[in-house]
Amino acid sequence: MAIDPQVLHRLTTEEDLPELDLSWLRPEDRARVEATRLRPGRKGLTLDLMEAGQELADASDDYTARPRGAERHPAAARHHLYYPLRHETWSDNVRLLYEEAVQRQWSSATDIPWHTLKPLPDDVERAWCQFATFLTEVEFIAGDTPGQWLERINPEWYEVKLFLLTQIMDEARHLDVFRKRALANGGGLLQESGGGGLRIILECQDFSEFSAIMHVFAEALVQTLFRSGEALAYNEAEKAIFRLCAQDESRHIAFGVMHLKHILETQPWRREEIHYYLDKIEGPLALDMQSGASANAPLFDEAIMVLAGGGRKNIDKGFDFLMNLRRRQVLEYLHRLEVAGLPERRYRMNPTLRAFIET
């Protein structure tokens, strides 16, 4: 079929190209580029090295997606949700924690010696499956929650965004590894929890509220549990799970403690506000703990008792382990608050939790 002459003419005729704007290619900038050229250090090209000598502003009047250091665009779209103050999301150790996070990633598929799993007594295997079911549920929430805050953090404080993204990846790995443990030895996922405490974490309305409740309280309790995991592990695979998850949780807690410290130092008038947030989360987690089983997750506590006792026949031994675990959880939680600059929390803590360190 012949080509239409008019179409052929357009295809063979050079059209006038729009005039290019190459103003951003400025030869005079070359000296500045050479002066700021970076050389990798002993630990590589780290964030600390990139930002050396740069002073951070305490506030930003930019509500666009402009990266820190880039020139403003006069027609850039505005994002009204951004926190304008650095203090509201900042932590002084955030760059270091990000570098550690990207260097210490691990795989639940290849870094866990799954071949060491052996058949366990029925009550022990079911206890492990209930334990792993609850932790799978917890880690889903732990991954979902930081994601809610990413769009609200100004790109001016990009380091916080980067760290929270690594935390989401950490929690994805945790829910993955506990789900695999529930399934890998033939037991399967069992009963979900009531989820009351988890909902409080999801419903936080402020970044510091989220960090105090999740990083400083909730993840601190989980970290103590993981560090006590040797008594609950029956093989090298389970030991590796606890060890690797604990190393990740340490970073999350370190961010939360230092963020809380930063808030108390730069915005001391928020002290009572922080106590209010901790009151909100301590109450639901303390219900019925006198009896050894929390109201929100009684099956989880019972599973710990069975695992620590080596089966149902030694449930009393398991109960003693759970009570000692609770005491360590409360003590380590209080220690982190003292480091952050909130030592008076010891006397304002939920009475049920305080009872674990007073008896």
Shape category: globular
Task: Give the DSSP E fraction (strand runs of 2 or more residues).
Answer: under 5%
Question: How many strands, what sense, and barrel or not for the largest sheet?
Answer: none
Question: What's the end-to-end separation, in Å?
Answer: 95 Å
Task: Extract low-pLDDT stretches.
Answer: none
Task: Write the element-wise H/E pattern from the N-terminal end onward.
Answer: HHHHHHHHHHHHHH
Question: Count of helices?
Answer: 14
Q: Strand pairing plus helix content: what structural class?
A: mainly alpha
What oligomeric assembly is this protein in?
single chain
Query: Mean pLDDT score, rounded?
Result: 85
Gyration radius over CA = 26 Å
Instruction: Estimate percent helicity.
Output: 55-70%
Number of DSSP-assigned strands: 0
Walk me through this protein's architecture.
There is one protein chain. This protein has 359 residues and is mostly helical. Helix content is 57%, strand content 0%. It is built from 14 helices and no strands. Helix 6 runs antiparallel to helix 9 (236-266). The longest helix is centred in the C-terminal third of the chain and has 31 residues, at 236-266. It is globular. The N and C termini lie far apart (95 Å).
